[in-house]
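Protocol check, entry for the methods section draft. Step 1: assemble the input record (protein sequence plus ligand SMILES). Step 2: submit for complex structure prediction. Step 3: store the structure tokens unaltered in the notebook. Ligand used here: zinc ion. Step 1 record:
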Amino acid sequence: MNKKILLLCISFFCLASTNAYSKFADLSRITPTIGKQSINLWFWKIASTIDDQDDIENNLLDTISSVDPNVKIYVHWFDSNDEYYWFFYNANRKNDIPSFQLRLFRNYVLSSYYLNAVGHNDYHILVAEDKWGDYSGVAYLRGHFSLSSDDNEKIAAHVMGHMLNAQHNYDTSWFSASIMYPHPSYWLYTLQTKFWNSDNQHSVGRTLKKLKHFPDSKLIDIEYLGDDSTKNAKKYNGLKWDESRANIHKLLVEKNTIYDITIIQADFDTYLYVYDKDGNLLDKNDDGGPGSWSKLEHQDFGSAKEVYLVVSGYKRASGEYKIRLTDYKTLIIEDSDTLSSLGENNNLRNFINLNNKVWIKVHNGIWVGEITLPQRFLGKKRKVTLTVDSRWPVKVIFTVNRIKKSRIVSQGEEITWVNTGDGWLIK
Ligand SMILES: [Zn+2]
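Step 3, stored output:
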């Protein structure tokens, strides 16, 4: 009879996470990733003898990808090749009390590499050759820190399960057991990396979905022209051109709006990227702006959503810069009430004041006999487009060079007016 309970799960929530990574400013080991759902997986070796690195790693990758194959995992081994290894080694000397060792490890990593605690995608496993008393592993449930001995090369995968919010279960099939079986070295069963019960699969899947791709973004708005700098920014992996210091700006965009995003007054050669909230790269630019600055024009995001602007530098350069955002709004008018009230109370003029383009779509069932384009309005670049799909034509009255003109727009026609300094021209 196997008497050992090998895994201890401390079930309180770890202080979920971190924000700044720059206490050892150039210890670029902990480099968050921009882009697709991703995990930074850190194995910290407290023993030099661990010889199953590949197995440990592959079992863990297998386990995660069996729940969500889209998660990208970056694996890092922290060992004596690292210049800070001996600080780590001395601060985390092996002892036999798993809860003590785990707390020591967590405190060490947080205080050495993280400045504060906000959501991130780093997971840390301290790997030792021997067990801690009777325990071969321990993890914070839904946390970011765990211990795993080399007693069995599936243990790291098991503790990773706990960090991703999986609980123990006793499911077995023939001589196989679920990866979350509580006694991984019980002689009768072999833990299977892809063997989950449905509860665990569900909760792990949910945790993976929530992994943050842009943990350190600051919200900006369309008026944004603040001074910014990548000089002390964090380094990120996953940028298309190279690993680099980058600033991340979150922007809430609107529907029917087109954006120009320009880097100005930069003292370095910039790169500019736009991502959606799921980490998909939407567009990128190197030198589209003045000099070697970046610019992305005519960005149409389709609907109201959050997007992420990432600014970094060519060949890891960094420096000061500003972002200029210009938005071009289109107002589409096609509902009967608005169409029939265009002539009242300066309605059309107000719409033109507030939008770069007003697109009037006239259809059957509504009578729009005549539209007058206002002579005066706010803003500079303005367009009015009229699409007529009704049997009755629409007469448009407008002024150009102080001369009043009119144009009849018939079914099937689409006409656009653009303003000049002296009125409206048909485009
Ligand atoms: Zn466990």
